[in-house]
């Protein structure tokens, strides 16, 4: 079964996505990554106001299978975090591109988006093409 890949997002090799929303970016974990993790039991996210550095860990997702670091696809400042996912980590599994988002960022350098994968390239990567 092919997992959904949102066409309006850019993707990091580490499976985080960013969706441009005006001057801001909504950040989350792709449906492929969520599926690979299995049942998610805990999510750790940075506080509002924290600075993220592209490629650096900004939190973690714990499942019954493993604990995975979340890596920042772009640098920026955290404007909001999804408290619903922190309270109910299964939200990440139910709707990773909608209600299961993780953070809203003010990007430090919007040009970093160009270095991320578009939906077609990411789809080919996760399908092993």
Automatic annotation (TrEMBL):
InterPro entries: 2-oxoA_DH_lipoyl-BS (IPR003016), Biotin_lipoyl (IPR000089), GCV_H (IPR002930), GCV_H/Fam206 (IPR033753), GCV_H_sub (IPR017453), Single_hybrid_motif (IPR011053). Keywords: Lipoyl. Residues 24-106 form the Lipoyl-binding domain. The modification N6-lipoyllysine is found at residue 65. One of its GO terms (biological process) is glycine decarboxylation via glycine cleavage system. CDD domains: GCS_H (cd06848). The keyword Endoplasmic reticulum does not apply. Binds 1 lipoyl cofactor covalently. GO terms for cellular component: cytosol; glycine cleavage complex. The keyword Flavoprotein does not apply. Its cofactor is (R)-lipoate. Belongs to the GcvH family. The glycine cleavage system catalyzes the degradation of glycine. The H protein shuttles the methylamine group of glycine from the P protein to the T protein. The glycine cleavage system is composed of four proteins: P, T, L and H. This is Glycine cleavage system H protein. It comes from Cyanobium usitatum str. Tous. The lineage of its organism: Bacteria, Bacillati, Cyanobacteriota, Cyanophyceae, Synechococcales.
